[in-house]
Each structure stands twice: as structure tokens, then as C-alpha cells.
């Protein structure tokens, strides 16, 4: 089985009054059976809104991408998750 590199854009949940820095810290300490987080950055979007960009590597296989994204969604304050880039390693 191969490995997949994914770059995510993670938005804060506007209803939860979430903080992008708190989400970034939680992403850095995320422990998963299917993948690892290699780099996390907070970036400005517009009008003071921040988002988290995460570079991750996960195992290729059925359901691994969904399982990894479910673990990201379980972080408090995470709203929308968007895949910006994906490719095989």
C-alpha cells in the first residue's frame, strides 16, 4: 500500500466562536492510526478571518481518508474541511 499527501484548508466553526490557533495546536498533536500531520499553519483569509492549513500524509486504502477527516472534525471548533491538494507519494 502507498501513502497519500494531502493539503487541507480547515475553517473555524463560526457558531462555536472557535480560534484558529487552538485548532492548529490540536492538529499538531493529532494522533491517528491512518496518518500523520506534518505541518500546520494559520493563515489569513479575509477581514480578520483565519484558517488552518495542514499538510498530512495518510495510508492509501479504502476508508482511510474518511477516517482521518472524521478525526479532524472531532477537534473542537472545526467547521468546514476542504482538500486543497492531494497526490500519491
Question: Keywords for this structure?
Answer:
alpha+beta, 49% strand, 4-stranded antiparallel sheet, Alpha-Beta Plaits, 89 residues, single chain
Explain briefly what this protein structure is.
The chain is α+β, with helices and mostly antiparallel strands and 89 residues long. Helices cover 21% and strands 49% of the residues.
Overview of the structural elements:
With 89 residues, the chain is α+β, with helices and mostly antiparallel strands. The protein has one domain: Alpha-Beta Plaits. The chain has two helices and four strands, in the order E-H-E-E-H-E. It has helices at 20-28, 64-73, and strands spanning 3-12, 35-46, 49-59, 78-88. It has a four-stranded antiparallel sheet with strand order 2-3-1-4. A hairpin with a 2-residue loop joins strand 2 and strand 3 (49-59). The chain is globular, with a radius of gyration of 13 Å. The termini are close together. The model has no long low-confidence stretch (mean pLDDT 92).
Set out the fold topology.
Blueprint: E1 3-12, H1 20-28, E2 35-46, E3 49-59, H2 64-73, E4 78-88
Antiparallel strand pairs: 1-3, 1-4, 2-3
The CATH C-level class name: Alpha Beta
Low-confidence stretches: none
Strand content: over 45%
- Tertiary shape: globular
Helix content: 10-25%
Could you give the order of the helices and strands? EHEEHE
Q: Mean pLDDT across all residues, rounded? A: 92
How many angstroms separate the termini? Answer: 11 Å
How many strand elements? 4
If you consult CATH, what is the topology? Alpha-Beta Plaits
Describe the strand arrangement of the main beta sheet, using strand numbers. Answer: 2-3-1-4
Mind summarizing the main beta sheet?
Answer: 4 strands, antiparallel
CATH architecture type: 2-Layer Sandwich
Number of helices: 2
Number of domains: 1
How big is the Rg? Answer: 13 Å
Instruction: Give me the CATH superfamily.
Output: Ribosomal protein S6/Translation elongation factor EF1B
User: Structural class, from secondary structure content?
Assistant: alpha+beta
Amino acid at each position: 500500500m502507498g501513502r497519500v499527501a494531502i493539503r487541507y484548508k480547515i475553517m473555524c466553526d463560526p457558531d462555536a466562536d472557535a480560534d484558529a490557533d487552538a485548532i492548529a495546536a490540536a492538529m499538531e498533536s493529532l494522533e491517528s492510526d491512518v496518518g500523520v500531520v506534518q505541518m500546520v499553519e494559520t493563515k489569513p483569509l479575509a477581514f480578520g478571518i483565519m484558517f488552518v492549513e495542514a499538510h498530512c500524509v495518510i495510508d492509501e486504502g479504502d476508508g482511510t481518508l474518511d477516517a482521518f477527516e472524521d478525526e479532524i472534525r472531532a477537534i473542537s471548533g472545526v467547521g468546514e474541511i476542504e482538500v486543497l491538494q492531494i497526490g500519491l507519494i
